[in-house]
Design a protein that fits this description.
Layout: H1 12-40, H2 44-58, H3 60-76, H4 83-108, H5 116-148, H6 151-165
Helix pairs in contact: 1-2, 1-5, 2-3, 2-4, 3-4, 3-6, 4-5
């Protein structure tokens, strides 16, 4: 049986949820990279994994946060009980960006990673933050968004996501 196709821009909330799965895979790759560097050093495969993680978080990962902060969160702010959650999630994005600014230069030049313990701790902190953040969004935010957002709001979210990616609808 073939896997189901990934949701498209016409299903913006499903697309955000699918992006969470891709983020988790990239975080797993990052954890494997940290372990690999410790056990086998910088191999061509490790260098490629580092480049792949950078490519993902510098494009799709960044778009994902923008999708949420620019398109989804503003449409949910007026919902009772969501303001505190949205503020916390936006704060997570800021902490993720701070950690990414430490990781990205190391991943762009993995031969400069000399403190493997420090790198491993940075990766673990980044991954733990993403894991908790994704769990909160999948459990508390996206189901609520599915309940309360009208079709016109979903179309507006789709339009913002498409524009960010240079996709014409």
């Amino acid at each position: 049986m073939l896997p189901a196709p990934a949701p498209g821009l016409d299903q913006p909330l499903a697309m955000l949820r699918a992006c969470h799965e891709r983020i988790q895979r990239q975080c797993a790759t990052l954890a494997k990279l940290a372990a690999h560097l410790r056990s086998d050093g910088l191999t061509p495969a490790a260098r490629q994994a580092a480049a792949d993680v950078v490519r993902y978080f510098s494009t799709a990962g960044r778009h994902h946060h923008e999708d949420e902060e620019q398109d989804l969160f503003p449409r949910l702010r007026a919902q009772p009980g969501l303001a505190v959650l949205l503020t916390a999630l936006a704060g997570d994005h800021q902490r993720m960006e701070t950690l990414w600014k430490k990781l990205e230069p190391l991943l762009n030049a993995p031969e400069t990673i000399v403190d493997l313990d420090g790198f491993g701790k940075l990766v673990a902190e980044f991954n733990a933050l993403y894991t908790a953040h994704i769990e909160t969004e999948n459990r508390d935010l996206l189901p609520r968004a599915e309940q309360v957002l009208p079709e016109d709001a979903l179309r507006e979210i789709t339009a913002g996501m498409a524009a960010r990616r240079g996709v014409r609808l």
